[in-house]
Structures
1.
Amino acid sequence: MFELSRTSLRIQITLLGSALLFGAPALAHEPVAAPPTSGTAVPLYDNLGDLHYPVDTRHELAQRYFDQGLRLTYAFNHGEALRAFRAAQQHDPQCAMCYWGEAFVLGPNINAPMDADAANPAVAAINKARDLAHDAKEKGWIEALAKRYSDDPDADRGPLNEAYAAAMGELAGQYPADQEIAVFFVDALMNTSPWDYWEADGVTSKGRIGEAIAMAEQVLQRNPNHPGAIHLYIHLTEASNDPHRAEPYAERLAGLMPGAGHLVHMPSHTFFRVGRYEDSENVNKRAVKADEDYLDQVGYDGLYAFGYYPHNIHYVLTSAQMAGDAATAFEYAERLQGKIPDVIAANVGWTQAILTAPYYAHAQLSTPATILALPDPGTQFPFVQAMWHYARGVAYAAQGELENAQTESARIAELNNSSDFGMLLDWAVPAPDLLRIAQHVLAGRIAQAQNDAQRAVKEFEIAAAIQDTIAYMEPPYWYYPVSQSLGAALLQAGEPQRAVAAFERSLEQFPENGWSLYGLMQALQACDDAVAAQDVEQRFKQAWAGGELDLRKL
């Protein structure tokens, strides 16, 4: 499976992402810089759309492999893109842009930093491209990318990324009709502050992200079917207060490159944010199938297999939860088992967030007996084990075993106090805060079981306030809006108007989710607002695929 001993890749906390990425299919068994032994050994896929960018080569196969590498780059399958660019080089060793492609995918991207072991191969590839380039535009591409790299593998990447973005901006100004230059300029701007595009209000963009959005929109005006532009535009807008703006493009994307599982999945980043959970579930089922078809051909290795593919399964599970679709949630929770090896989870922090997902699904949808039968995941990953304790605590509270529920809560607290979550924090996984949310939600459940509505309100208020500080992530780090639990507790406390406000807040966070719609309907009925309650009831019926609800399940 994952033979690090036969590669030059090193597992490092902040650098593993790219290393595993370039240990992806077929490259896991050879050094980073080694090309395929034969260009024909790399398949030419017929399900990646028709995007074409002419480069300076007279060799048809070199051009076809270059186009495949470009498509896969837009699909964030950088390991397979690397294979394609190297295959192009085999067919035309004089193709400058084929070496540019290799240099690009060896670099950082918004989901993974650049691995130190990729530095020398990237510099070698871009220098080779420089030596071969004759066309003026291609020289512009190559010289811009050269600014992203340094002969010093320990060089500060911040200024290098900024210099590359500036150079791509100049190139975009020189060639305003070139859509690919524009899209790579957008990508360069995003990499100056990956996953940090918006102020807390969701209205004010950070840094040069406003420029990136405007450039992406220009491309989409000219070509609304550009897969790379749509992909990046979804990422740029999903954390904003207006993710709807990407909807028309998201609806197109899955069909543009049906063999690229990550692009088939990407519409769900928009669909989930706008409350289209069934659509989110469906595109991710298609993405899982596309990934499995691909990985069955090339082998289950690298970050694509151990990160992107499980991410799609996770998305099916989470989307199903929002609609109360227990059967689908449990099916995909089971499918997650064994998908992320321990070596990945120990070093790529965000994969541990995927490992917690089945416990959230069971806590929300399972019977207490089912939850209490779940095996202990062990002590290797305290974050994951804490969420196992959380699910058990929810189960004990539901069946009135409050002393046992409090014991589970105490174990979460112990893990939070005694564990080193440094690696997770390096990957921006806010594990300590998530454990605090779990403790307070569990305390709220215990209070509800004791019919102490006021204490439940207080605990859920604390948990909701912590949740409000958690940075955007998809699927969200905490699986549901705690404001809906607060709304339920407020109803039980005889405060229906405050409950309405809490449920409305939860629907701002997770639009049109069935759980919160049910609570809002109950709160409006308690406020004697029959007309509004009937309207919400219709929305609830459309959103809900689950069984009977009651307030203590919210």
2.
Amino acid sequence: MILFLYASLASSVALQIDLGCESMRASMMQRGSPVSIVMNGLGRRYTPAVASILPISDQAPAIFTDQDVQYFKRSVGDISTVQRYPLNSTRFLPQILGKNYSSKLVSYFMRRNLTMPFDSDEDKYLDLIAPPEFFAAQLLQSAIADCKNSKINRTVDDLALVIPKFLTHHQRTAFIRASKLSTYTPRLVDTFSAVGTLFALERSQLFRNKPMYVCFIDIGASQMQVSIQEFTKAQNVEKGAQNNEKETIVNELGYAWTDLFGSYSVDCQIARAIRREIRKQKPDAVFDDKSVQRILHAARQVKHELTLQPKVSLFLEDLVHGFDMTFTYSMDQLKKRCRKELNALNTTFFTAFWKAGFDAPEDIDRFELVGGGTRSPLFIDAINATFNGKVPVLRSLNTEEAAVIGAGYVVASSRKNYLANNIRFNGVDAYDITINKTNDGRVASFYYKGDQKLPIGIKPFIRAVDLGQKGKYEIVDGRVRVHGCRKLTFSGLYKEKRTRVEKTLQAFEEIEAKQSEHDKLMHEFDTFLIETREKLTKDEFVMKASSVEERSNALRLIANYQYMIQKIQMGEECHKGGKNNDSEISGDLDSVNSENEVINGKFDESELKRMKNDIEEATKLIFKRASDLSDSPAAYQKLADLLESINQAVETDWPKMGLRPRSKHLKKLGRQCQKTEKWLDDHEESLEGVSLDDINIMYERLRQAFEIVKKNLKQSHQSSMDL
């Protein structure tokens, strides 16, 4: 029992997940073992952003077309803001929920995407749109499942999510909601807390004797972050610590960020260059959805080749239908096109530099690059050019997985006796939150200070609550948490505090239960169609008892219904009479859960019953005749056996026993026997066209006449015995 308990405890791990960049990364932390990477194939090719913006059509582009970009330019005002969405998860996931989009933009998303009705937020921070945290929860569950399957009896007891530090209250809440949908309450670890902890653990020898100042630069798909940190060793003054034991102290001195540009902007610049070259060589080129996908894929290929050599020349095939070309591009051309991205990086660095209080860049000991975007020499050359190579620019940490590995050590440092040396991280706050109290301190409103930079589309207002007499509030990890309060809406009405996660879970459970029941009905109906078709085409009695025209009509009806089911399985929308059902999909939760409707473009229960009845009516007569043809020989033989047994009783058995039935009953039995014998003689050669019901009726009449005679004989015999 003790060994089993020890094995169970040893298999429990903490899982860390980074939903950012172009793919999901995951790591697991277990006591006594270094943090290791969890391989998750689903997260490397499918992100919450791609899921939430996935169009209905299979032919839709992976990025937006020119017309879409023009539309978003009018709505948002920045083309790069739009173009980064499809391959970015960290930004798109919370922005859908944390942004107060214009109605025009929301209507575009609802028109292009399969939306699931969601309860509208009273503060207008949530619009009626498919919740991306539902897709994020599916990815989290896949990573959790992969972690559990990596070893027998392995369980996940803790979940941590790596997020950028500049995420606001609503954006952090979106990540927590996604985790709770996957049945875990997470802890949020910002990128540079994780990276700083990893550096302090793996590079502790560098600052053993004197403090060290490191500038971390994180370049993701759509954002750039800079953090300047100080690493020192100090005496551990905690109770019970050894006299010679020292702890590592990491002080974050300055932090800055931008969400206007990232590595995905570089892909878009190269893609535009490829498109311009195609226009030069083929002026009549037509860019369809597939062309946009191929151009973007070719742009990434060019960017990766530029990491190895300053100039590349690639032969690109079939970018536009039937058109191939050789594309030549150099790093110098890319630098000219990416001036905005490089200027944004310099501005972000100097902002963090000034906040840290440094006088000269040479005061920094080294630059450490993390994030997938730092693979490109474009940003490395820009940093070296800015500081004339006076400060070394290194990638000593695992660039793409440094944050998720460091998050594992952050979790380990929060647990007792997990790390040999204690690591204490003192971070700076990305935002200052102002609390405004009115009505004698009863109503509290939370705002971001007006002079602070906020992510695109985020308003300064956070929330307003009625504290009452026992209400409390606190700011934890950049989120405003309240206890015992009533939520106050803009209209001033008081409403009961809503637990949005519970409502979301309840809504999805109801939808999943109804979907499961519907899938069961669809499977039963599909099985019924297959069995009916098999019977019509392979049963020899059906072939003999029906004509080709009758079978063709029934098979045509079955094929029609099977085609409609196939459309449903392929994801196409199908409704009664073949009509589209977009209006029902865009309803509210009540309409989704209402009865007698088509679920996600599928047949409801009443429609399935109607179609099943149609097929049964079309095949009823055919199967009836086939049944008669297959069962008639046995019924014929049964009738003949009964007739033989009656003749044996009347002619032999009863005279031997001295039994004499009444002549009236015997005559009736004789007439019925004659009719039966004549019918048997007439159909001795063939039973074609004979109904099984007719044979059963004749058998029943003969049996009843025989029973009447036997009953009369029994009564006569009893009377003679009494005398």
3.
Amino acid sequence: MRSTLVACIFVLGATIAVNTQTNEQKISDAVKALPESMREGAAVVEYDADGYRTVLREGSNSLVCEPDDPNVEGFRVGCYHQNRIARLNFERQLAATGKSAAEIFQARSAKVDTGLLPLPVAGQMAYFLAGADEASATPTRSVRLPYATAESTGLPTERGQDGVWLMQAGTNRAHIMIVGNGGETGQTEGTNGDSIAEAVSPLAPALRSGATVVRYNDNGKRDILRQGNNSIVCEPDDSAVEGFRVSCYHEGHVPRLNFEKELAATGIEQGEVFAARVKSVEAGRIPLPVAGQMQYFLGGEDIASATSFKGVRLPYATSASSGLPTERSSDNIWLMQAGTNRAHIMMPGR
């Protein structure tokens, strides 16, 4: 089966060959796209040539998986949030009439935009595992963010070296693509101690020149070191703190960070600062994070050993609403602080 990532969908085709696998084998293969902790609870289904689905196994979580299609070359299995079922049923049944992929997507988008099909919910996951065969299959994940843009998220819209970018920006199909590990970005080679170059190093190269760079002083006030022209703000390493750490975040985080820094400057402990911020967000005194806003970090004992990770803000998201595990697994992507206004997806580097 081909591992084409465009639109991150299952192949829309009629069933021709006879699948000799048992249901148990199909189920076992289908859930391999998921983090291990999510596999046992996932439903497993398959579609027939007319676009109708058969449930092979009922599930107990919010994920639905499909086994490999024996009619298509290679190996490809995938799982998605149950919110997608209505849209997928529409697509499959339309495909069975002979419509092209472009016609199907156009029809689906129109149905979603007019409310006749449910809009994807921000943060809902899809998981894919595809390659020439199972042994060589590469994991790919997507995070639904309908109508998101580069400005609203702080993401590039073209694939870079880290394999994390925003596809179909500005449409109801907008989603973050995460290919492979999806954690490595930061490159400090060639920064030569330049604090601004180091500050933007967690970002994809396409985003670095447009990022604003700031530093907070001892009073919790920020000084702008470089004014940017995109929606990302970065901070250089603090030489007064042991180790190396630089970070970048969406400009929507600035009011919350200003609140924290100014409160911390009064001598209040970090735990109390976070508690006060949460309370202020809940009360509407400082803005709630917007789903999809990015954070980027690069840190370690020193600049040479620094590793990267990313965060995707999803306020109040839960495992059920997103289809994500709440503990780190071999899949290396999970939901932290689930159910709170600080909920976010974590994507560490290697």
